[in-house]
Amino acid sequence: MIPLGELNSLFLFSGKKKKKKETSKKKTMEASEVPVATVTQRSQKSVESQVGRIYEGFAKHPPDAQFRMLELKRENHIDYLKGGLRQLPSSFCILDALRPWVCFWNLHSLALLGESVDDQLQNNIVDFLSRCQMPHLATTYAAVCSLVTLGGHKALSSINRSEMYMFLRQMEHPSGGFRSLELYLIPYFSPGFMMVEKLMSGPATLQFLLVASILNILDDELVQNVGNYILSCQTYEGGISAEPGTEAHGGYTFCGVATMIMINQVNQLDLPRLRQMIVRKFNVVFNEHVLNLSNPKTNDWLVFQQGKECGFKGRTNKLVDCCYSFWQGGTFALLQRACSTIDQQLVIPVGGNTFEVNFNDIGHNFVKRRVEMEPLFDGRALQLYLLLCSQEENGGLKDKPGKSRDFYHTCYALSGLSVSQHIWSDDESLLMPRAVLGPYSNLLEPIHPFFNVVLERYHEARDFFTTFWLSNIIVL
After folding, report:
1. Tell me, what DSSP letter sits at residue 370?
2. Domain 41-185+200-287+302-471 maps to which CATH number in 3.40.50.300, 1.10.10.10, 3.20.20.240, 1.50.10.20?
3. Higher model confidence: residue 420 or residue 298?
4. Suppose 375 and one of 26, 87, 119, 423 were both cysteines; which one would form an S-S bond, judging by CB atoms 3.0 to 4.6 Å apart?
5. Which stretches make up the Prenyltransferase alpha-alpha toroid domain (predicted)?
6. Is 323 annotated as catalytic?
């Protein structure tokens, strides 16, 4: 647990503001010379002002009051999430095609909080997911992770691995990317639609590999040319975009890095440049002893994605958003276990040999790998943003102050909270975190950094699909 006395040093909004010395000679500027603030600048200033007021108010309270303000409203979150699994208002009809995602967001959030659902609701969810039609890679991933999160023989055995393998092969594209769907036009994560032949290097590729990996059906045929496609999506900033020639994005960066680790080709990425991109999104707030800006190795896109608000943003010159606490924070968790490759690339050019491996074992072995370096971002500051600025008193978490709660942001904010709590774990004992902000009751379950499912449920599913299914060999 972090001493409350250290909190004020985490952000610049607290304490008395120093008055600038008045000078006898004041510089003036003609009105015509004053630059007009852009929409982005005005929005950023507004968000900083809102967050600043929250932090300033927090800093004025005595330690015991601050302690209560930092409490994770666990029971309220559980009530909110269980309500989303039973009855949704008519306004949710726009998410009809994303119902497997609604299942995953709520089930995963509950699992992070250490909560389960009753047998009847579990049976209803398994039955619903087994009836879903018009397959799509994104919803396939959501459905599989929902069943993994539920756990148990009924949920896991409801997945037809042979049919799944055939579906995944149909989604392959000669470029190394993957189609998300074949014939249909359906809503995706963000406003807009994904069309036939649409390639998504980030979500589609990782979803493809994660489904195949956790079901123990990932083979050489399924990963052919994947690495080259991901490499074509790494931008000049260092981050990874959805497809070649587009802007780097936190979600796609996480998916790209995880994909390259899973296929044993992470050394092909320019990791120092990637780290630099993330660093640029998180550097403004912290003292030099927290984030050593004088160290060129640390002046690496990821960390710079975490700004004055203490939360992460997803793209350059965009606003803070709590969901990136996982997408960016999760990338840090991946890079912490790839630091030796980063250090080698600082001396030796990008590339090198890859070795033959069993792809289905990589996810299992990676989570056991020792963390060889300190956290690349300040997990305490991220927890501060999530608990004070994103948390709704009545349950659920929101993008940022002024926004409304929703299941998506609740899921990924809690995932990011878990990552930031366990970021200091330096061995296989992931249940012994060293950085829980607020009451120790805030501690969430650890997650697998690839799959974003609770670690215990991942191990159960892996054991199931490597033992129970040994006698059920896929015949194509």
Report:
1. P
2. 1.50.10.20
3. 420
4. 423
5. 72-453
6. yes
Mean pLDDT along residues 136-158: 94
**112-133 mean pLDDT:** 95
Strand 405-406 with 186-187, pairing: unpaired
E strands, 199-312, are: none
Q: Give the residue extent of every domain in the chain.
A: 41-185+200-287+302-471
Out of 77, 179, 249, 405, which one is annotated catalytic?
249
Is there a contact between 326 and 397 (Cβ–Cβ < 8 Å)?
A: no
**Per residue in 134-144, pLDDT tens?**
888 889 999 99
Cα gap 419→306, rounded to integer Å = 15
Query: Residue 95: which residues within 8 A CB-CB, separation 6 or more?
Result: 101, 102, 187
Q: Which residue of the set 219, 343, 361, 406 is catalytic?
A: 406
Residue 426 falls in the annotated catalytic set: no
Catalytic residue flag (residue 318): yes
Residue 321 bears catalytic tag = yes
Residues 404-459: tens digit of each pLDDT:
999 999 999 999 999 999 875 545 444 455 679 999 999 999 999 889 999 999 99
Check 108, 315, 364, 405 and give the catalytic one. 315
How many whole angstroms separate alpha carbon 292 and alpha carbon 88?
Answer: 47
Whether 324 sits among the annotated catalytic residues: the reply is: yes
User: How far lies 409's CA from each of 2, 134, 245, 306, 404, in Å?
Assistant: 25, 26, 28, 17, 10
